[in-house]
Amino acid sequence: MRIHLSRFVCLDVASNLDRMAGEGAAAAAAGAELCIFPEGFLHGYTRALDPLEARRRFRALSGDHPETAFLFGSFTEERRNRLTFWQGGEEKARYDKVHLFRPNGEFDLWEPGDRYAAVRFRDWTLGLLNCNDLRFPEQARALRMQARCDALLAPAWWPWRRDHIWRALLQARAIENGVFTVGCCIAASEYPGEAFSGAGNHVFDPMGDPVHTLDDHTYELDPRRGAGLIVDPLSAYVDISTVQVY
Asked: Which residues of the chain have pLDDT under 50?
C-alpha cells in the first residue's frame, strides 16, 4: 500500500483548508492509496473551525478522488478530538482520542473517547490512534489482537524536542505487536500565541525496522516485510477489551 504522510504547517483555518485540498489532490494524483494528515492540522488547539465546514471539505476532497482514502488527522467535534476516515465522499470510520494529554490542557478542551476503533480498507485492517495514545500499549495490543490490524496509524501533535520519544514509542508498538506503525506528526504551527515545532514522520515495519522514503512523504507498506516473524503475537491472544471495527 502506498501512503502519503503530510508534513503540515498549521496557519490560519482558511489557509489550512485550502492547503489540505491541494495537498490531498496532489497525493492522489501521485498514486497514494491512503493520505494521512496530522492531529489538529486545521485548527491547532485555539483556532475556531465549524465542524460542518470541515466535513464539507472532507466530503469534497474524498469525493473528487475516490481511489484514495483520507485520514484527516483530527478536528474538534462534539467536544471530542476526532480522527475521521473518508473514501469516495463518505465517512467510513471515526475515532475519538481516548488518552488525552493533561499537560497541554486537553481535558479542558475535549472529553475522552470511550472505545478504540479500526477500519477495513482493501486488504488491510487499520488501527486508529492519536498522539498520546501511543504511551498506552494496551490500546495497540487490543487493536492488533481483537481487530487483527495489519497497521496502526497515529496522527500526532508531538514536539520536535521529544522526537526521540515519539520515534521510540512507534517502534515499540511495531515490535511488540508485529505490525506496521505509521506516525504522521504536525511539522509546525505558525500562528500568534501557538508557535510550535513538530516531530518527524516515522514508519516502522512489523520487525521494528524503519521504512524509508525518498521524498519525505511517500512510503510503501509491503506486507511481505515481517512475514518471517519468529514469534506470532496473535498466538497469545487474550480477549481483554472491546474494539469497534468499521
From this structure: none
Single pTM value for the model: 0.93
Model pLDDT, residue 144? 95
Q: Are 146 and 239 in contact (CB under 8 A)?
A: yes
pLDDT number for residue 153 = 98
Q: What is the pLDDT of residues 65-89, one digit of tens each?
A: 999 999 999 999 999 999 999 999 9
Residue reference for cell 470510520: 93
Given a contact cutoff of 8 angstroms between Cβ atoms, the answer to whether 242 and 118 are in contact is: no
Find the DSSP H helices in the chain. 13-29, 51-64, 106-109, 137-145, 163-177
The sign one gets for the Cα dihedral 115, 118, 119, 120 is: negative
- pLDDT tens-place string over residues 86-103: 999 999 999 999 999 999
Q: Which domains does the chain have, with CATH numbers?
A: 2-222 (3.60.110.10)
91 three-state secondary structure: strand
Contact 10, 189 (CB under 8 A): yes
Helix (H) or strand (E) holding 121, with range, is: strand 116-121
CA dist 97 and 110 (Å) reads 9
With CA atoms as reference, report the closest residue to 154 among 145, 162, 164, 143.
143
Task: Return d(Cα 212, Cα 141) in angstroms, integer.
Answer: 25
